[in-house]
Design brief:
The chain is α/β, with parallel strands linked by helices and about 400 residues long. The protein is built from 16 helices and 17 strands. A 9-stranded mixed beta sheet has the order 1-13-12-9-8-7-2-3-6, sandwiched between helices. It has a 4-stranded mixed beta sheet with strand order 5-4-11-10, with helices on one face. Helix 4 packs parallel to helix 5, helix 8 packs across helix 13 and helix 10 runs parallel beside helix 11. The radius of gyration is 21 Å and the shape is globular.
């Protein structure tokens, strides 16, 4: 099912929506949703005071950069206390990195109304964290996940001004329980103002070839085990300068990801649905990028083509640091390493292990990265759940039978 943002007479018009966090995407949502008539409750545990101090009387300024448009919006509530910001909100959005999901869930779940729905963006493995937290707290809340994060944006001046450079053409959504998707997906499409494709479970979101594949494959091609043999006199452009070696690694990881998706569908019927092609629930990486970025990509035969011709990727730098004048090297403390391996590619690798899928290329990439990061995510070819943090079924203690229970078509 595909849902398109509605025009007038929206079923969500005037609805109270909570937004968790104080980063780039949260700023955009305050501005974009606020100027379209939604009542915004902002929950930001560490930066509420800064919001209140910096927010201009006319509201936060949102620049729609490519549309030559400016809007202003002011949250209804700004609070570091979930008990103030969460009750009364029909939808609670978490536009935060995967590593932040657990703590935010612990904060907000006790205060959610019975009919509320928590929506994570992005949502890789969000259901695994949510199920764990709800079990610990003894409370069930409807959840949804949107993938990928719709916005390309950057804060100009905290709580005062934000630039929105672009939005994805369409995104995917999954819900738990799955039976609420028919109600939730159209409303989320309205709230976000986007075209939304409904997935049968969270697995297609977790297996979508976004940053866990895109970033790690490019890093392996850009640097890899022999990076010390090279001299870098500047920061490499991450997408614009994608080379053939990177393209090879990107497609190697993508091909293994397709095998994982097929094995998941065979083991848990109906959990993934269609695979591959130009409209599958888990597409090949180049087709997926064209699907979500639309006309901003002019050539999409390979991942390299997509990276080099995507207008929204132009000029983006790499996870590198200048260690002395004119001498650059990889920055292994950058989020491309610290997030996209333990909270990204390791999720795919953990699923592969549960499903009995061999992933020699994923293993090679992870083994290289962990050697640079001082980690042991894989030991003797197996997921090491004791290396924390990581987002794998093994780290949660989930088995294949657990996943069958989560992703049953009747869940």
């Amino acid at each position: 099912m595909t849902c398109t943002a509605a025009g007038g007479n929206r079923s969500t018009e005037g609805m109270t929506v909570a937004i968790c966090g104080g980063g780039n995407a949260s700023h955009v949502m305050v501005g974009d949703l606020g100027c379209r008539g939604y009542k915004i409750n902002l929950f930001t545990p560490t930066r509420a005071a800064q919001w209140k101090e910096n927010l201009p009387k006319e509201g936060m300024k949102l620049n729609y950069v490519t549309k030559d448009r400016v809007e202003y919006a002011t949250p209804n509530i700004i609070s570091a206390n979930a008990a103030e910001a969460i009750p009364g909100a029909k939808y609670i959005f978490i536009p935060l990195p995967v590593f932040a999901h657990r703590q935010v869930l612990l904060d907000i779940v006790p205060h959610c109304d019975d009919d509320a729905c928590i929506v994570a963006m992005p949502a890789t493995c969000f259901d695994w964290s949510a199920i764990q937290v709800m079990r610990e707290l003894g409370k069930k809340v409807n959840i949804a996940g949107v993938g990928p994060l719709p916005y390309v944006c950057r804060i100009v001046d905290y709580a005062k001004e934000t630039n929105l450079y672009g939005m994805k053409g369409q995104v995917g959504i999954a819900t738990l329980p799955g039976g609420i998707a028919g109600r939730v997906a159209p409303q989320v499409a309205e709230i976000l103002g986007l075209k939304v494709k409904t997935y049968p479970s969270f697995l297609p979101i977790t297996l979508t070839p976004t940053n866990p594949i895109m970033h790690t494959g490019r890093l392996m091609g850009m640097f890899g085990p022999n990076w010390r043999d090279n001299k870098y006199d500047r920061m490499i452009k991450f997408y614009d300068e994608t080379d053939e070696l990177s393209n090879t690694w990107l497609h190697r990881l993508d091909d293994e990801n397709q095998l994982i998706a097929k094995a998941a569908e065979e083991a848990i019927g109906g959990s993934v649905g269609s695979i591959g092609g130009t409209d599958g629930n888990v597409m090949h990486i180049n087709n997926y990028l064209k699907w979500t970025y639309g006309e901003d990509i002019s050539k999409w035969d390979t991942c390299k083509d997509c990276f080099q011709t995507n207008k929204q990727f132009a000029g983006v730098g790499s996870p590198m640091k200048e260690v002395s004048e004119g001498v650059w090297e990889p920055d292994f403390k950058n989020r491309y390493f610290q997030e996209d391996f333990p909270f990204g590619l390791m999720a795919n690798r953990g699923l592969a292990e549960l499903l009995g899928v061999k992933t020699p290329y994923m293993d090679e990439v992870i083994m290289w990265a962990q050697s640079e990061m001082g980690k042991k995510y894989l030991v003797d070819g197996k997921v090491n759940p004791d290396e924390k943090p990581q987002m794998t079924p093994q780290a949660f203690g989930y088995t294949l039978e657990d996943l069958r229970g989560f992703y049953s078509t009747h869940a």
